[in-house]
Amino acid sequence: RQESRFIMDARSHVGASGLMQVMPATARWTARRIGMNSFTLEQLNERETNIAIGTGYLKLVLDDFEGSMPLAAAAYNAGPGRPRNWRNGPVIEAAAWAENVPFNETRDYVKKVLANTTTYAAILSGQPQSLKARLGQVGPRESSRPEPNRDLP
To answer: How much is the pTM?
Structure first.
C-alpha cells in the first residue's frame, strides 16, 4: 500500500516501478538471487513479477537485519547501508529510533509502513496488535552475529 497505493504501473520520480516500487538495479540483482534467471526489466510492471521481486528483496533485507521490521523498512526505502549506520548507537525502542531517522522521507515511510503492518496484522488475526511489541528495539549488530550482506543493494 505505502509504495504505490496499489497502482500496478506506478513509477516514482527516482525510477522505481510497479506495485512494490522496485528500482531497476535492485530488481535485476534480486531476480538473480531468487532464481528468476530469465527476468527482464520489461517484466517489472507485471503484477506477479513485481510482487515476487519486491517480496524477495524484502525477505533478503529482513534476513540481513535479523528480522527487524523498522530497519528493513528503512533499508527498503533508503538502501541498506544507511540503516546499518543509523543503528550504531545505544539500544532504544524502535519507535524512538524511527523518530530519529535523519531523512524525512525515510522517517515518514518507516512510520507509515509499520503502522500499516500493525493494522493489517490486527485485521488478519482479528486481535488487537501492540505496535511496541511488534517493533522491538534497535541497536548495534552484536559482534557475534554474522556480517551483513554487503552485496545487498
So the answer is: 0.87
